[in-house]
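Example with several molecule types.
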Amino acid sequence: MSERIIDPATKGWAASWYEASARARIDGLLDTGSFREVIGPEQRRMSPHLPLFDLPRAFDDGMIVGSGRLDGQPVLVAAQEGRFMGGAFGEVHGAKLVGLLRAALALKPAAVLILFDTGGVRLQEANAGETAIAEVMRAITQLRAAGVPVIGLIGGRAGAYGGGGLIAATCSRLVVSEGGRISVSGPEVIETNKGAEEFDSRDRALVWRTMGGKHRRLTGGADAYADDTVAAFRQAALDLIGRAPAFDLATLEAEQARLEQRLTRFGDCRDATEIWARLGVNDPEAVPALTTADFDALLARLGETTHDAR
Amino acid sequence: MTLAEILASLFPEGHSVTVADGLVNGEGPFRGGRLAVIGIDGDTALGVDGACRLAGHVLDVVRRGDATPILVAIDSDSQRMSRRDELLGLNEYLAHLAKTLLLADAKGHPTVGLIYGHSAAGAFIATALATRVLVGLPGANPSVMDLPSVARVTKLPLDRLEAMAKDTPVFAPGLDNMVRTGAVQAVLDPDQPLAEQIAAVIDALPAEDTRDRAGRERGGRPVAEAIAAQVVREAAFG
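Resulting structure tokens for the full complex:
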């Protein structure tokens, strides 16, 4: 049992988002010294359930929530610690995020930032985790309808899987990095249930191009692509806050059209490279190795990948 | 109850609800107006195509501009697990379906989930759990993951998990456990007309999300409500 996961070696703006702990991500993302945690680890609000499974607990249950400033603007922040139980949603973990979103309805911050790093529902607390995910999605839509942008940041080692992927797509805007993966069923889950012929989870290149940040950004599943640094995520979050889509019938009708069009255009594709080629990418095989600058240039050339239909 | 029995009990005067590829859609007369029904039947897995079609049906109801209630009837598998579904962004499709139901709710359509069979994971979150109130019928079997799979993942012996499942509602599959967690508000009586029971559920819709309170009162989710309430109380800008 450890009070907090600290990685002093990766502090600072150039620090890798992927390598950083949840606390280091918050510290680097927000204005220096502005973060004020609610239900901090000193309160030891740990999972009441994990001891039944002989599993170690964390003082923060892998979820850190609180308030702070982003370039002077008041924001609420939630960050998942992917190194504790894979960032999975348990009862306390989920309830902290639910509470933060409900608090935002009253506080009306400039934005709520969710730093995803999760494999999905924590199986040892599956019913509580799944219900919390439903509560989170309801609260996010209420918040968006009230005019508060909810920005998801995805670049952690656990990605945004399972219910985490559903919550992500409920946000107003998403920032993703190369290492960020967004998906419902993980590679291992598909392989276990459907066989390695369906999905070879050991084929890491397949995982990245099917679920990774570049594919999601290219197909409109994310709104901004960031370098794997805390500074890049901060800048991307700042850029997105000002242009969050409303949560209304027009937005969801546009999303319906966008998703129907994706099925029509790409529904018969077997591999991401086929989708990228149809999008107009001249050399799909080269996409995984593109630098952020070259990838951004590609996005600008394609144009259509940016939308308000979420 | 089967879907046909449910529909007969809901709409004694008949209805237009049909099932195609396991997807349920249609409506019937209800309290002088209509009740729209969408859903999943036959333990069908929910993939990108099905989620998109169901979402379109919900938006059709919302677009009419009235306050037609929407019943989400569910007997599904989990989300469809495939390379194609994930390649096409299944998370967006499932979330979109949930968002259409949440939008309908926000725009005055009472939304009620009815689980009468199986459901699991992403399919459950995108449908029945995205309604204002979820009710069940006896015999329903919602789960996140079946116990043999839980045993595989947690590396705990199956017999021990089965023993724990008897008095640990927070992780065990089954309708009773989802009731105790607060996700399922009530279990309906299959021997009484469903039209009246669904009408009573709609008349008593809670104004807010009360699932965590129910979870505390019923013992299935002992601390969630208090944790969320503490965050609401203490979050502030310095």
